[in-house]
Structures are given as structure tokens and as C-alpha cells.
């Protein structure tokens, strides 16, 4: 193992250890080196990227519209900018083979990733076994490289509103358990927000659970009480900064002080 891979392995282990049910790892997602440094400077022990925020900051739409070289260059700049572990939202891998995906992650200096189980371009869900095979292949490639990358398996049933709502959580649990068996460290039922369904999912998933914070949904404290091991903010911070920038520019155009605190 090289010195670099040893350092990455240590960061991967540190990232994995921060997933604690009921005491979640909080991830206000970054999109560039500056926002990543701000996250680290605020005391957060991990920097996570948001694919949507990175894509938009680079001038592309989310949904794997960003050229793969540009996405990994952006992720590498983020990883170089901070002294903490970095986990990257990599959609479904940008069409890379598992071996190349892992190689690019390690070259970029990231030690974890999100992989989603629907097609980023069409929204169609993949069969759970096909997704499990992908996760297992990524896990095998990471093990072969000597770096235990932290795999966060995104479950898109709620995002895509797939299937009968009455059976959605049972299917999400089934997928979670299958992905965990395939080598995922954490499962991420994105947009799951109903407290009763969250409790049911957490009880059945048999894995650390990543939930997403959304305005109007359960608070961070409530997500922790419901058993989250990780809470992501997704593109929310980027969206808020973009809105503040728009307000600042409106003030400049109107001849007002753009640095005045925003009105409540």
C-alpha cells in the first residue's frame, strides 16, 4: 500500500466510523473548493458534494450531463482544499466501469460516494439485483485497491414515486437489505420524509440510514430521533447561496447597499 492509499484508507475508516444511528453525521453539501473550505472551517468533520450543485456550478444540468472529466476535476479540487474526508455524489457512475470509477475516486482523493439506483437521465429504476451487482463490483474494486471506500447506496423509490405507495417502504427495505449485503455501508432513501415510514425503514434496513433534510420535513433533531446515521442537505445550501446572490445583484441594480442584511 502506498503512502497515499494508506492516508485514503485512514480517511475512509474515519468517515465510516462517523455513521452513528441516532447521532448522525451532518453533511451540508459543498460544490466547489471555497464552499468545501467553509464547511470544514465551520467544524464539520466531513465534506460531501452534491452532484446537482457541482453540475450547476460548472454550467451543466444534474442527471450526468456533466462531462465525467469535469466532474472528477471538480471533486479533486474539493478534496485538495480540505484536510477532512470527502465523499462525492457520483450519480450512477457516469457510465464508468466499477474499476475505473474506483480508480478515478482514489486519484481525486475522495473516500466515499453515493450511487443511485435509477437512471439519472430517464428516472427509470434499475432492478435491485442489477444495482446490487454494481455495488458489489465497486466494493470489490475498492478492496483490491486497498482503500475501503464508503458506499452510500441511494434508493430512489420515493424520489421517483415508483410503485404502489402502500408497498413503497417495504420495497425500499428490501432494496436496502440487498444493497447492504452487496457491500454498501449506508443506505439512502432520498426524499423519504414521513416520520412513520422513516421509523419503519430504519427498523428494517439493517444498515446505517442517510436521510435528507428538506424545509417543511422533519427537523434535524427529529431525524436523529428517528434513527438517522447521516443527514444530507443536498443542493439546498447551493440553492440558498444562489438566491442570496440574486438578491444582492437586485440590490446593486436598484442602487441599494448590497451588503445590508437580508430582511427577515
What order do the helices and strands come in, and which of them pair?
Layout: H1 3-17, E1 25-27, H2 33-41, E2 47-48, H3 51-57, H4 68-81, E3 86-89, H5 98-108, E4 112-116, H6 128-145, E5 150-155, H7 157-160, H8 165-182, E6 186-189, H9 195-205, E7 210-212, H10 220-225, E8 230-232, H11 236-253
Parallel strand pairs: 1-8, 2-3, 3-4, 4-5, 5-6, 7-8
Helix pairs in contact: 2-4, 4-5, 5-6, 6-8, 8-9
Explained architecture:
It is built from eleven helices and eight strands. The chain has helices at residues 3-17, 33-41, 51-57, 68-81, 98-108, 128-145, 157-160, 165-182, 195-205, 220-225, 236-253; strands at 25-27, 47-48, 86-89, 112-116, 150-155, 186-189, 210-212, 230-232. Helix 6 links the parallel strand 4 and strand 5 (150-155). It is globular and about 60 Å long. The mean pLDDT is 96.
Keywords:
264 residues; 50% helix; globular
| Radius of gyration, taken over Cα atoms and rounded to an integer in Å | 18 Å
Coarse structural class: alpha/beta
Counting copies of identical and different chains, the oligomeric state is single chain
**Overall morphology:** globular
Largest sheet: 5 strands, parallel
Helix content range of the residues, please? 40-55%
Write a short abstract of this structure.
The chain has helices at residues 3-17, 33-41, 51-57, 68-81, 98-108, 128-145, 157-160, 165-182, 195-205, 220-225, 236-253, and strands at 25-27, 47-48, 86-89, 112-116, 150-155, 186-189, 210-212, 230-232. The protein has 264 residues and is an alpha/beta fold.
